[in-house]
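Onboarding guide, step 5: your first structure request.
Type a short instruction followed by the sequence, for example:

Predict the 3D structure of this protein.
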Amino acid sequence: MSRSIKKGFYVNEKLMKKVMKVRELPLEDRPKNVIRTWSRDSTITPEMIGLVFEVHNGKNFIKVKVVEDMVGHKLGEFAPTRKFIKHGGRAAELMAKKQGQATK
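The system replies with structure tokens like these:
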């Protein structure tokens, strides 16, 4: 656990102000208001359920719609910072072609 229970969870103050500001809006206007944040280490609280965040991953912003199961997790968990590029290169492509022809 990254933070003791005695200390409690961490939420950036500026982010919480933005959440409360969007919460005051009527329900039909909420999806239009996306909250942009660089605070990947902020914990998701029950007040954030149903809101859409754009979390910075170091290069661009990833849209994250908060649902009930996300409460207690960090915002950064839902915006991956690394992109997987498949292994193998040319040799793997040839093997995949051979396997594709063998199954036909």
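Each response can be followed by summary notes, for example: Residues 57 and 83 are 11 Å apart (CA to CA).
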